[in-house]
Amino acid sequence: MSTKSDSWGSRVGLILAMAGNAVGLGNFLRFPVQAVQNGGGAFIIPYLVCFLVMGIPLLFIEWSSGRFGGRSGNHSTPYILDSMAKGRVWKYIGVFGIFTNIAVAAYYCYIESWTMSYVYHSIVGTFNEMSQADVAGFFNSYTNIAESTTGIPYEAVIFYIICLLLNTFILSKGLGGIEKVAKIGMPLLITFGVVLAVRGLTLGTSGASDIFPDANAWDGLNFLWTPQFDSLTSPKVWLAAAGQIFFTLSVGMGTIHCYAAYLKSKDDIALNAVSAGFMNEFVEVVLGSLIVIPIAAGYLGLDWVIQNAGFGMAFQTMPYLFQQWGSGLAIVAGVCWFGLLFFAGITSSLAMGTPWMGFMQDEFNWSKNKGAWSFGALVLIMGLPTVIFYNEGLFDQYDYWAGTVSLVVFAFLETVLFSYIFGIKKGWAEINQGADIKIPGFYKYIILIVTPLLLGWVLVSSIPDWIDKVKDNDTNNKEWFAKEFYAENFDAAGKNAGTVEEVGTNTVKFSFEDIKKVFDKETETVKTITYTNYKEYKFKAKKNQVVVVQKGDIVKPNDIIATGDFKNDTLYKFMGRMLLLSLFIFISVIVYFAYKKRVKEGRATL
Q1: What are the two backbone dihedrals, phi and then psi, of residue 8, each rounded to the nearest 5 degrees?
Q2: Distance between CA 36 and CA 206 in Å, rounded?
Q3: Which neighbouring-strand residues pair with 484?
Q4: How close are the terminal C-alpha atoms of the chain, in Å?
Q5: Where is it chiefly localized (predicted)?
Q6: DSSP code of residue 564
Q7: Cβ of 551: how many Cβ atoms within 10 Å?
Q8: Helix (H) and strand (E) counts for the chain?
Q9: Most buried residue, 86, 253, 341, 373, by most Cβ within 10 Å?
């Protein structure tokens, strides 16, 4: 086994690095959107409950497990878990702690590269004089690598590679490089966040226009903090809150184990875990709620925000909104906002490289440099398909299986291991060893009973959705290669038919009855109204794709609307799932060879 010289330089650096691992793009992009989509202020209640009974316990579990494994010279989840229980299976369950990080980094660095690109475009004035539709169109063109609105060929690929090279270079410097970035990045992130949050608080009705006369930033704030109590009984809201806690705290990934493995036996983990957790919550709940939603509502109105809330909303709207502040301030705001997102992203993506590096250094004596660049190579191989086939849904497959399902599965299994196999008595003592605070005794029973039950419920209730994803039940065009194209669902429920409004040689436009949510200021509740919506399909003449419906036709979901040669998105979704499965098998094989090496050296556990 190699001798470990890597360690944290200071407690402040460790806490900032841990907080940086947790504070990421989800704090500013995902959290406010989840709140809007799940009852506004009501979402905060299950969110905080999940933080206290699932987030904090998992932080305690992962910090203490990591430090325990680190005492035996293990710095990644396969052998951290292996050191906590007898039986060969746990080292393979620990594969999740390496697999998830590589798979998530593959697409997370792509989002991170968007922020880097948007900083560049903010400085050079690309968004000057653009309408909101033009800004949204720019994002769509950017993610289509065949197009270029700026004259830079394959721009998305270039920025992705630059972003990945930067991550890999910093990782090659070990914990010292990560700690330096955290000490610079976290204060800058909070500074940028405060500047933009102040603007969100002071915008008021000054952004209203002829197009959006009712725009008011305070409507956005009121909606976020006014509970819609009827949503508290919805399992969907509670599942969304639990999912956001996983996403925001980076639990169930293995990065916390790895960071904590470099602590000394008497180093505090209780206060460190709570400090990093609450710093993340401050950034998310306070700063995250004061930027995107209020500023967007201040210019476009709350109803527009409710109807268009999504992960990419900030990229499709914020550059346009900043232009309303004047060209000079637009540059400053663009650099602050997208710079904030970049620092939030890189402090998280750097953490994702440490489990692989720690494992290869422990088991095969690889240097930090070799470990970092091999991690970069793996991420590049896994990540380029998410860049090239982003619009075909491959990116979403990574986010779902690696960024959601894998987290829940691993968190549930590690909680069972910690509480019932390693043992809660032993685990509780480990948490409290060297602690600078006294942890309330009831948390022992939360970890033992409440946390695994809640995780088990999330796991079991998610299984039907897993089946739907594998069966591609979100589309009517399931065949990889087909001669016919079927109409997708018009409304979310898939019950309404569409009427053909316009037909071109290779285009068809439908109208259909749909529903949308609007905010009623008098009752301070979200209401559902019916309206006429439109959907348009575009086909390719060079693929012999021809529309076969006529104006006035009534078309139901799954009716044929075009013939020709079609290559459907299900091919790319399947490709994404197979790439993820191949990565998991690849890491499992490496863990097997590491085990054989340990047996040969006489240091394997049984």
Answers
A1: -80, 140
A2: 22
A3: 563
A4: 18
A5: membrane
A6: E
A7: 11
A8: 26, 7
A9: 253
